[in-house]
């Protein structure tokens, strides 16, 4: 056991630079051993169990994930992406898992953990097993995965706060009370996962704000909902692998209080006092990458709207940045946005290494810290970041790199929960991050249809510019104004898709309803097939849906269309319920390559929305202008309506 402990807690070798030459191919054994792993193996005994992550060679391509997430509802998006990722990983991992189970029986492997959000396996294994894994063609690379101190250290001493009737200054500065009082929005229906050191579940300000797994029966010792976790009522403890996410550190209790604390004991510390906090514990002082990746997967799998994560790996610790970004992007594809601390490194590590991983992931919301007067904190990590040498991406080259943080929020002397009772002040980007996550919860109640991409866009647009004019590497887009964000969420355009279709003329060939949502591979195709010299004069597809708004200020309809042969005319119509007839909105010559048609209606919009059930109907007509063969096809896909309240 001494060898195991020595390796599990070994200090990272700062000078080692991970190779970025390999991702997705077989590569050499040396290339497959990443980060500090070669040095750790060289100093290990034959029976030492070394914590590693095994990144499989084959991963689901992003273009397939992007296509799968293009769904008409949040639930459909989640199901489509999960049904793509999970079976792929389970099938691809079988060979490696069979080998590791055999090694486990021989005492050469333990703590075998799997992911499906990306195709990765975690294990503690002997050098012999690790070398054997590296020789397998289905293994992409293996990364050293020690438990390290990754929680953002508060930058000032903890300061106990006497119970008092007050609203925390950061909550007030972000105008959350105006959201509650003027708009009646407090975060109802929103689920925010807090990935941290856990939280004291019995704090009076938190006890009624805990997420409760709707598919789990407490205390029966059964995984009722089949998510792989027994009695995960309020979340999970990945550090101890049990269903008790209670906090023994204090960091997570504080951050959870900033998201949802309701002020029962005196101080209103939470931004969204009626939202639900899913408590996911990944460590007390230390965590490893695999535990946090599992936490992110848990949040997305249980359909949290967002996760708040006040932790990060300095680049000097050689985090597996490729996998971090893959997981963050796939969580977004599943419907869960990430709100992550930038770090407390200030302006160190120039020119582009101050922001920690995964706060450096371009697609997530990265949070810097200010005081309650919107002035940047000296410790708040500044950008930019670059991914120019990260395998699998090689983007955002420096200069200029990618601007980070995304936005800033209060994180200096923040008052929030002190374990199970009372309040304490802490400072750090750890404290700023849950302020933004709480604002996201308010946005979700205001508009439950928001996508993760829309959430980030609104957070950026709703911020008050600070520092250098425009988007900058100190404040990001500025100081987040939660009231602005909620108002934007209320007025955010809503996109919806066809729910049914009918072929008015012609013969169905391939595709179907889902084909109208996607690209060419699943497009809805109708064929002109008549026993005449040039076929029937026209073919048409009717598309039916329901508007989420009865009286929108604007309605847009967009689709891609093409034909197999020309000359053909393409006509777009919408059904006018006032005149009870089809109204033509666009006419053009069709093409044998995709062309996008988009029409916008801003006057008398309700003529296209049926009173009562809010039905909308569109029709795409392809008219034969003299095609010289009997059979030709018309094709449509990427059909979507958008309404603005």
Describe this structure in words.
By secondary structure, the protein is α/β, with parallel strands linked by helices. It has three domains: 145 residues, no CATH class; 334 residues, Peptidase S8/S53 domain (Rossmann fold, 3-Layer(aba) Sandwich), CATH 3.40.50; 150 residues, Jelly Rolls (Sandwich). It is 23% helix and 26% strand. The chain contains 15 helices and 32 strands. A seven-stranded parallel beta sheet has the order 10-12-9-14-15-16-17, sandwiched between helices. Strands 22, 24, 25, 27, 30 and 32 form a six-stranded antiparallel beta sheet that branches. A hairpin with a 4-residue loop joins strand 28 and strand 29. Helix 13 packs parallel to helix 15. The chain starts with a helix and ends with a strand. The N terminus is likely disordered.
Strand order of the largest sheet: 10-12-9-14-15-16-17
Return the CATH class of the largest domain: Alpha Beta
Tally of separate domains: 3
Number of helices: 15
Characterize the overall form: globular
The CATH architecture name of the largest domain reads 3-Layer(aba) Sandwich
Main β-sheet: number of strands, strand sense, barrel status?
7 strands, parallel
How many β-strands, per DSSP?
Answer: 32
The chain-level mean pLDDT equals: 90
What is CATH's topology name of the largest domain? Answer: Rossmann fold
- Over the alpha carbons, how many angstroms does the gyration radius reach? 27 Å
Strand content: 25-35%
CATH superfamily of the largest domain: Peptidase S8/S53 domain
């Amino acid at each position: 056991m001494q060898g195991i402990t020595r390796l599990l807690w070994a200090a990272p070798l700062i000078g080692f630079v991970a190779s970025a030459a390999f991702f997705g191919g077989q590569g050499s054994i040396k290339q497959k051993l990443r980060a500090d792993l070669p040095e750790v193996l060289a100093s290990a005994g034959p029976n030492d169990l070394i914590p590693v992550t095994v990144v499989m060679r084959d991963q689901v391509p992003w273009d397939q994930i992007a296509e799968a997430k293009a769904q008409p509802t949040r639930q459909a998006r989640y199901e489509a992406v999960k049904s793509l990722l999970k079976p792929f990983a389970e099938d691809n991992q079988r060979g490696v898992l069979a080998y590791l189970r055999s090694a486990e029986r021989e005492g050469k492997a333990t703590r075998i953990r799997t992911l499906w959000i990306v195709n990765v396996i975690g294990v503690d294994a002997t050098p012999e097993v690790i070398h054997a894994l590296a020789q397998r063609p289905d293994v992409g690379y293996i990364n050293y995965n020690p438990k390290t101190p990754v929680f953002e250290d508060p930058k000032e001493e903890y300061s106990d706060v006497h119970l008092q009737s007050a609203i925390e200054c950061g909550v007030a500065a972000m105008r959350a009370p105006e959201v509650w009082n003027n708009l009646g929005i407090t975060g109802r229906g929103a689920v925010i996962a807090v990935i941290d050191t856990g939280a004291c579940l019995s704090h009076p300000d938190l006890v009624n704000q805990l997420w409760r797994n709707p598919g789990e029966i407490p205390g029966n010792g059964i995984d009722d909902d089949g998510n792989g976790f027994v009695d995960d009522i309020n979340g999970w403890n990945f550090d101890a692998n049990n269903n008790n996410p209670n906090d023994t550190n204090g960091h997570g209790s504080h951050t959870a209080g900033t998201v949802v604390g309701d002020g029962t004991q005196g101080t209103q510390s939470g931004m969204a006092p009626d939202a639900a906090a899913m408590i996911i514990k990944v460590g007390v002082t230390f965590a490893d990458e695999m535990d946090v990746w599992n936490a992110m997967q848990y949040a997305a799998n249980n359909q949290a709207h967002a996760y708040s994560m006040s932790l990060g790996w300095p680049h000097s610790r050689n985090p597996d940045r490729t996998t971090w970004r893959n997981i963050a992007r796939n969580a977004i594809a599943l419907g869960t946005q990430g709100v992550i601390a930038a770090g407390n490194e200030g302006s160190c590590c120039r020119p582009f290494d101050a922001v920690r991983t995964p706060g450096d992931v371009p697609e997530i919301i990265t949070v810097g810290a200010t005081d309650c007067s919107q002035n940047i904190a000296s410790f708040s990590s500044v950008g930019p970041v670059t991914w120019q040498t990260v395998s699998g991406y090689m983007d955002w080259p420096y200069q200029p790199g990618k601007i980070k943080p995304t936005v800033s929020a209060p994180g200096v002397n923040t008052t929030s929960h002190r374990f199970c009772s009372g309040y304490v002040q802490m400072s750090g980007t750890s404290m700023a991050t849950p302020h933004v996550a709480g604002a996201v919860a308010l946005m979700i109640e205001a508009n439950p249809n928001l996508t993760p991409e829309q959430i980030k866009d609104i957070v950026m647009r709703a911020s008050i510019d600070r520092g250098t004019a425009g988007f900058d590497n100190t404040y990001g887009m500025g100081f987040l104004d939660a009231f602005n964000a909620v108002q934007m969420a209320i007025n955010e355009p809503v996109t919806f898709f066809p729910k049914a279709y009918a072929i008015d003329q012609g013969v169905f060939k391939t595709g179907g309803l889902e084909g109208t949502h996607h690209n060419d591979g699943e497009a809805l195709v109708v064929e002109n097939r008549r026993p005449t010299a040039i076929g029937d004069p026209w073919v048409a597809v009717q598309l039916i849906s329901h508007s989420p708004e009865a009286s929108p200020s604007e309605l847009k309809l967009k689709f891609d269309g093409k034909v197999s042969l020309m000359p053909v005319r393409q006509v777009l119509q919408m059904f006018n319920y006032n005149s009870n007839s089809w109204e033509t909105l666009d006419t053009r010559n069709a093409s044998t390559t995709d062309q996008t048609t988009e029409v916008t209606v801003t006057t008398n919009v309700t003529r296209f929305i049926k009173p009562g059930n809010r039905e909308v109907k569109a029709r795409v007509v392809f008219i034969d202008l003299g095609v010289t063969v009997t059979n030709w096809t018309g094709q449509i896909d990427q059909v979507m309506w958008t309404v603005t309240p």
